[in-house]
Amino acid sequence: MQKDCISEFLGFGGGMEGLMMKRVFAERRSVAQVEEGADLAPKFDERGLLPVVTTDAGTGEVLMMGYLNEEALRKTLETGEAHYFSRSRQVLWHKGATSGFVQKVKELRIDDDQDCVWLRVETVGGANCHVGYRSCFYRAVPVGTGYRGPEGALVWMEEEKVFDPEAVYGDAPNPTRL
User: Fold this and answer.
1) Under a CB-based contact definition with an 8 Å cutoff, are residues 121 and 106 in contact?
2) Is residue 175 a contact partner of residue 93, using CB atoms and an 8 Å limit?
3) What pLDDT digit, counting tens, does each position of 20-59 carry?
4) Which CATH superfamily is domain 42-169 in?
């Protein structure tokens, strides 16, 4: 079996079999271990979540920001495909399971104190936003003297949607909550 980048990153030379046989997360024992050691010892917040920033592996464009719980992080490591935890729906979410726009993880990085993750992905089909755009960050807010106030402040950075959300999701409930 060919080694994948996640197994190499974690030091499991045996691919998925090695990952499943090893303990996935280390106990946090010391600052030195967390900041300078080789142990994967993530610090989930009081709700059991870890923020994750997802970017395009080729361009570096920010695609989305989400959250991982322990199961989402474990499944991402096991499958090499991005899994998230939806705070609005309170469920594990395999990115692209419904839409087909699966995020293939090319690299997973964890920050210095292991309380934030960065995923570099390639997205099958090129769309990442449930609204239909390539990136969830499809609007900008002028800063400084260009800011006019909250109403009408947003400027579209992506003009065309990659897909029609109604055609893909049908009558599925929208994950956005007011």
Assistant:
1) yes
2) no
3) 445 789 999 999 999 999 999 999 999 999 999 999 999 9
4) Phosphoribosyl-AMP cyclohydrolase (3.10.20.810)
